[in-house]
Amino acid sequence: MKAYVQMMRPTIMGVINVTPDSFSDGGRFAADSGIDHQACIEQAIELARQGARILDIGGEASSFHRPGVVPVPAEQQIHRVVPVIHGLKRRIDEPSELDPSTIISVDTRCGSVGEAAISAGASMINDTSAGEFDPEMFHIVAQHGCFIILMHMWMESPQHPPMARENICDDVFGYLRQRAGAAMAQGIARNRILLDPGIGFGKAMEDNWRLISNIDQLVAEGFPVVLGASRKRFLSTIGADVTPGTWDQRDMATALVTALAAQRGVLVHRVHHVQLAAMALAVHAHFPRVR
Fold first, then answer.
1. Please, where are the H alpha helices in 121-269?
2. 18 and 59 Cβ atoms separated by less than 8 Å
3. Which of 205, 215, 194, 200 is nearest to 258 (CA)?
4. Taking the CB of residue 182, how many other CB atoms lie within 10 A of it?
5. Burial of 229 (0-12, 13-18, 19+ CB in 10 A)
6. Which of 18, 188, 235, 281 could be stapled to 253 by a disulfide with Cβ–Cβ 3.0 to 4.6 Å?
């Protein structure tokens, strides 16, 4: 319950990609033996110290439209993420400067990965398929009583690039409403469900901006809303005279989007650069909510 109350105010989710192919930091924790799990743990701890209250550990890149990015078998995902979650949970449970209510999330579409992660200490599953990839996912979440993020994704490929949709908000928000209903029908408590519009996942550039501009419509559904705009390609389309190309520049643009989204009621902000997001939310806290 303490974790749920924590998500009733703007909260930062820090990204830890235990992968060789994630779009901005893939391969960061590579080692001769495969994965430097200890380096992953230390990075997660550092993000928590900087202000992240949710730590999202992922063992599979989800940008399948990019060359070389392919689905990762569940067994390999487990090998990547479970040692990190085990070690991270031990560090959080030790008396330290870390908030003991810090939430460990696993970024996976696979129910078996989610179950292994929960056994290791995770209490949230971030499912980019909104429970559609693995029919067992909702049963596992309901059984363990953990949190689940339901994200919207359209598959993209070089042969089928995303096209702008006139009714993008109705389409995305309606889909998430339907998936939340399906989750609750399988026994998942309403207060364990979060919704994510899936910025950058199969959407045209202008669609991403439209979804963020109207994100208060999704907030009105009554579920905590997650926004993962961090470092996404659409941030490079701000204007001809301002084109964030480097990760540092995109992180600055992400921080601005974070503050604006918080004004519209977004509660969970999934970012790579936690310090900038924390500053953005601190600035936001000094302004009254726009209604």
1. 137-144, 168-185, 205-213, 215-219, 247-263
2. yes
3. 215
4. 15
5. buried
6. 235
Structural domains in the chain, sorted by start:
2-284 (3.20.20.20)
- Pairing assessment for the beta strands 30-31 and 34-35 based on DSSP bridges: antiparallel
Evaluated on CA atoms 195, 196, 202, 205, the torsion sign reads positive
Q: Which residue has the tokens 């109705």?
A: 170
SS3 12: strand
Q: Would you say 190 and 184 are in contact if contact means Cβ atoms under 8 Å apart?
A: yes
**The residue to which tokens 């890149």 are assigned:** 61
Mean pLDDT by runs of 10 across the 291 residues of the chain is 64 90 53 75 94 95 64 93 96 85 96 98 97 97 98 76 84 97 98 96 92 97 96 77 68 94 96 96 81 49
Please report how the helices 247-263 and 274-284 are oriented relative to each other, as an axis angle in degrees rounded to 10. Answer: 30
